[in-house]
């Protein structure tokens, strides 16, 4: 990433998280100069100027940084520089529980019969 892109990435705005019963959400607002630098293949082919849904690798590649589990699930057509993300509610707790289980397995504590 060039210095110009670093400066633009630093200006990315991340909303507070909000949630419903199933997901937590946040929106990310890209600065317009950064939005204009996004590769054309990331946009919908219908010439509306809106992004298609991006993979994690793609959105991280344009400078968006978030913890694990977020998916780009929707675009806001009136404001194409606003990306909407979601992940399962309590995702962090699920990951910590999985890591603890894996550590126990590695230590031979799970599944051992007495």
Automatic annotation (TrEMBL):
SMART domains tied to this protein: CKS (SM01084)
Signal sequence bounds: none
PROSITE patterns in the cross-refs: CKS_1, CKS_2
Keywords: Cell cycle, Cell division
InterPro entries, alphabetized: Cyclin-dep_kinase_reg-sub, Cyclin-dep_kinase_reg-sub_sf
Physiological role: Binds to the catalytic subunit of the cyclin dependent kinases and is essential for their biological function.
Family per record: Belongs to the CKS family.
Entry protein name: Cyclin-dependent kinases regulatory subunit
Gene source species: Somion occarium
């Amino acid at each position: 990433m060039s210095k110009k892109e670093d400066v633009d990435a630093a200006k990315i705005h991340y909303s507070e998280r909000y949630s419903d019963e199933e997901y937590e959400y946040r929106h990310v607002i890209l600065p317009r100069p950064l939005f204009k630098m996004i590769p054309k293949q990331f946009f919908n082919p219908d010439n509306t100027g809106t992004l298609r849904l991006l993979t994690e690798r793609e959105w991280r590649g344009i400078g968006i940084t978030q913890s694990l589990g977020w998916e780009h699930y929707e675009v806001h057509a009136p404001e194409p520089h606003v990306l909407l993300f979601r992940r399962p509610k309590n995702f962090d707790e699920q990951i910590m529980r999985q890591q603890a289980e894996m550590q126990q397995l590695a230590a031979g504590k799970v599944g051992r019969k007495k």
